[in-house]
Structure formats: structure tokens, C-alpha cells
Amino acid sequence: MKELRGKLIADRIKGECLDFVGKYNGILPALAVLRVGEKEDDIAYERSIKKRFVDYGLEVKDYELPANCTNEEFQEVFDFINDDPEIQGILVMRPLPAQIDEEAMLKKMNPLKDLDGITDANVAGVMRGDKHAFAPCTAQAVVEILKDYNIEMAGKRVCVIGRSMVVGKPLSMLLLKENATVTVCHSKTENIKAVASEADIVVAAIGKAKKISGGYVREDATVIDVGINVDEQGNLCGDCDWDQIVLKASAATPVPGGVGTVTTAVLARHLVEATKLQKNL
Amino acid sequence: MKELRGKLIADRIKGECLDFVGKYNGILPALAVLRVGEKEDDIAYERSIKKRFVDYGLEVKDYELPANCTNEEFQEVFDFINDDPEIQGILVMRPLPAQIDEEAMLKKMNPLKDLDGITDANVAGVMRGDKHAFAPCTAQAVVEILKDYNIEMAGKRVCVIGRSMVVGKPLSMLLLKENATVTVCHSKTENIKAVASEADIVVAAIGKAKKISGGYVREDATVIDVGINVDEQGNLCGDCDWDQIVLKASAATPVPGGVGTVTTAVLARHLVEATKLQKNL
């Protein structure tokens, strides 16, 4: 079985980013990361973004608020980031605490700074297949991996397991654009193993450790594992049971080192694209 | 085989509309139909809307522009409709001629008046599953028919043939909300007959007369035919070959008298909902 590692793709995107900052050396694309509270996952993700962006020649600016900040305090910081021409991209760690009016934030957010595709303009643009719409980075990362490894999507059957706004739904639209025949499965799907087993490509995006066993995968299918979970031994693992998948799939993404690696790189590419759009380059 | 006729559903929606105008008798919900040019299909659709809306106790206001009008003329009329508080719904006959800036129109359009779900806010709202988002009327009509005839969607396999922004894509999102397992097929799908034959429900939305033969349909499946075409004899027909479908399906919508009938009724219901939202009723 072939391991579909994300590193080579990430390195190529790194090259694109470094080329950009080299070419326009007065311009330093900056991402604002807005975090409310001290959730461990958020802090870990933020740390990995910062480490990567430094390598890629890009800037990250942190904006932190305490978990009990008021909605007004949050919106004020958000407005600053949203309006500041020195910031070209915004990543808001979600979900936000209950007191924050997320809808108000989404309504205001500049779609050109919305690198993770959460505004109406980008959600709708992804459904329409618009070239300049930002898709959620994780969904985009799945397509990048398939493209990079020359795994045919056009005409092929792809089963997406999971129907979230972060992965399943937007990914189904991106895959349609690539001319795949897309099936979306979820917790209410009957005979989910039988349905998934029809697919040439299975994408697991359910957020449950090792849930996708060999029974979900046809012999020689490609498996893309979007999940990042912690198993009973405290180790990182995906939504797929790797030991079983390797016996059936012809190719699969490892966790870690697969989709997650590419997701952060896609975020960096989106920041460069956003900078080009905002500065008309 | 059971014919899934739209008339009873349309009559029930008519009842809802008449109840509304009876209850709030100072309020007459008004739909503006904006048409550029004299396309026969547009005029026929407009005529059928008007006839129906009169029956339903609702108003239709016509706004017509010549095919060679300028973009400025168009936008001026559009702005008037969009801003007039006496108009609660807008239906723009599309596609518009090339000289009209459709994107500018979409950006301005009040989502609360956007009864056919073409603005970013409604496209995104439908993907998110928001309760108050307006879906394209045709896509919504498909779901209404399945609900009304108590055809189970939850957990079942639905194959949508067609991936347009008017039917296929938004319908796939509406069906996911109903907990269906959704497959979207299209012109690039390999073995499309085999794929469609797996489904409990097949929705044909490709706009090709009688293209969907019995080979696309599993014994006892339900078939929803969204197409409205003219056959070689000049008669109205759907995307399905009715003579073949009746031999295999357990239930199917006729053309005419099926989805189209419900679509105009859904437009009327959307106008009443839009009126409630705009007048806080």
C-alpha cells in the first residue's frame, strides 16, 4: 500500500510562498489568529501554524481574549483585524464561547480575508465552483492530495463520510467540480459499510478514533483520513483503523503526516492568494 | 405504480396562502417578476405564476425591459424593486443578457426578498441547513413531494442526476438535512445506470427529454422528474421516459402535473414567509 504523505505537497506550497515573498519583498503577508480562551487544541494548532508560517516566510499575529470576554470586547478586536490593511488573512478559532455573536462576526467579515471559507460569500462561491472562493482548508487539502498523487477523480466514485460545514459538505462541492460522482454518508446512513465499499475513494471525516475499519473499504480503494483524534493509549490517530486499512487500500493518508500537514500549507497558500487579491498583484 | 401528482400539495399551500391573507387582511403580499426580453419560456412561466398567484390571493407585479436595455436601466429598475417596501419578493428571469451585471445585482439583492435562493446568504444558508434560508423553489418542491407522500428519506439512498445551482447542488443539501444518503451524478459519471439503480429514490434534473430510461431505476424505486422539455412531437415531457419508468418504479411524478406544479406553489409559500419575515408577523 502506498502512503500518501503530505510533506512533499507542503514543501511545494512552501516554495510557492517563499517565491512570492521573494518576488514582492516589500510585502509580508500577515495572518491574524483570533483565539478566545485557552483550549489546548486551539493553542496546539496555533503553535503549529506559527512554526510553519515562519518557515514559509509569512507572518502570524496573535490576538487572544480571555474565555469570559464580552461580546463587545470580541467584536472590537475583530473589527480592528478585519479593517487593518496590514492583515490579509483571518483565522478565528471556533467554536466561540456562547456569549460571542458569531453571526454578527460572519456578516462583517471581509470575504477576501476569510481564509477558511466561513463567510456566506465563500460558502456560496464554493458551491458555485467560483475560482476565487476560499474553501475550508481541510476540505481543500483533501483535493490537493488526490491531485498531487494523480489519483483520478473525474467520473470516479468518492464516498465522503461526514457532513460537516468544515469538511463533508464543502468537500462534496469541490469533488463535484473535479467531476467525481460524490456520495455523502453520515450517522443516519443505512448499511454504511456497503455504501462506502462501492467507492473508488473513501474520505473519512467523522472525528471518531479508528472508527472506519477495513469493512468500509473496497479492495484497492484510496483512503483519505481527515480525522485527528487521540486513541486510548494517548497517541494521535485518524478516523480510520490504520492496521486494517493497510491490508485493503491501494493508497491511504497517514495520521499524523497526511491531511493535517497539507491543511496548514493550504492555509498559507490562501494567505498568499488573499494578499494578491487585496493588493491587486 | 403510484402517480405522485402535485395538485394536492399545491392546493394545501394555496390554503395556507389564503389563510394568511385572510388573517392579515390589510396585507397583500406582492411578488415582482423582473424580465428582460421576450423569451417564450419566460413569458409562459410568468403567465402561469400570475394565474396561480391570483387564485392564492397574492399579487404579482410585472417589470419588463427590452432585450437591449442597458445595464444602468436594469439596475435602476432592480434597485426600485429591491427597496420598495410594498414588494416582498423578487423573481428575476435568468439567464440575463450579457450586458447586464448579474453579479452586481446578486450582491445588492435583499436576501429576505430572494424567493428563489440565488443570493450568497441563501445559498450558504441552504448549505448550513438554516431554517429561514430560501432554497431554489424547484429543489424545495422535490423535498415537499417526498414529504407529502410519506416517502422515507432518512437513511435511504437518493441519487440526484444533475449538479446545477438551481436543482442538483442545493437539493443535495436539502436531502442531507432530511438525513438521506445522497449521491450526485452528472454527465461525467461512469456507469451512471448502475449508480442510479442503487438508489431508493432517483431525482432526474438534467434537462434532456426522456433521457432517463428504465435502466436507471431499481425495481420499486421512487422517481422524481424535475425536467420540463418538449419532445419530438411537440408535447411536454420530463427527463424520464415515462413508458419505461411506470414498469419499474413504485411511484413517480408525472410531467406535467408533478414537480412543476409544486414549484409555483413553493414560490407562493416563500412569498408569504418573506412577508412574515419583513413585517415581523
Describe this entry's structure for a reader.
The structure is a homodimer. Chain A is α/β, with parallel strands linked by helices and about 280 residues long. The first copy, chain A, has two domains: about 10-115 and about 260-280, Rossmann fold (3-Layer(aba) Sandwich), CATH 3.40.50.10860; about 135-255, 3-Layer(aba) Sandwich (Rossmann fold), CATH 3.40.50. Chain A has ten helices and eleven strands. Chain A has a six-stranded parallel sheet with strand order 1-11-8-7-5-6. In chain A, strands 3-2-4 form a three-stranded parallel sheet, sandwiched between helices. In chain A, strands 9-10 form a two-stranded antiparallel sheet. In chain A, helix 2 (about 40-55) links the parallel strand 2 and strand 3 (about 60-65). In chain A, helix 1 (about 5-25) runs parallel beside helix 10 (about 260-280), helix 6 (about 135-150) runs parallel beside helix 7 and helix 6 (about 135-150) packs across helix 10. The longest helix of chain A is centred in the last third of the chain and has 20 residues, at about 260-280. The model of chain A has no long low-confidence stretch (mean pLDDT about 95). At the A-B interface, helix 5, helix 7 and strand 6 of A face helix 5, helix 7 and strand 6 of B.
> What can be said about the biggest beta sheet of chain A?
6 strands, parallel
User: In the CATH hierarchy, what is the architecture of the largest domain in chain A at level 2?
Assistant: 3-Layer(aba) Sandwich
List low-pLDDT spans of chain A. Answer: none
CATH homology superfamily of the largest domain in chain A: Leucine Dehydrogenase, chain A, domain 1
Number of strands of chain A: 11
Oligomer: homodimer
Helix content of chain A: 40-55%
Most extensive protein-chain contact, per-chain counts: A-B, 32 and 32 residues
Structural class by helix and strand composition of chain A: alpha/beta
CATH topological fold name of the largest domain in chain A:
Rossmann fold
What is the N-to-C succession of helices and strands of chain A? Answer: EHEHEHEHHHEHEHEEEEHEH
Taking all Cα atoms into account, the compactness measure Rg of chain A is: 19 Å
The first-level CATH class of the largest domain in chain A is given as Alpha Beta
What form of chain A results from the Cα inertia axes? Answer: globular
Number of domain modules of chain A: 2
Structure annotation, total helices of chain A: 10
User: Major sheet of chain A: order of its strands?
Assistant: 1-11-8-7-5-6
Cα distance, first to last residue of chain A? 42 Å
Mean pLDDT of chain A: 97
Estimate what percentage of residues of chain A fall within beta strands.
15-25%
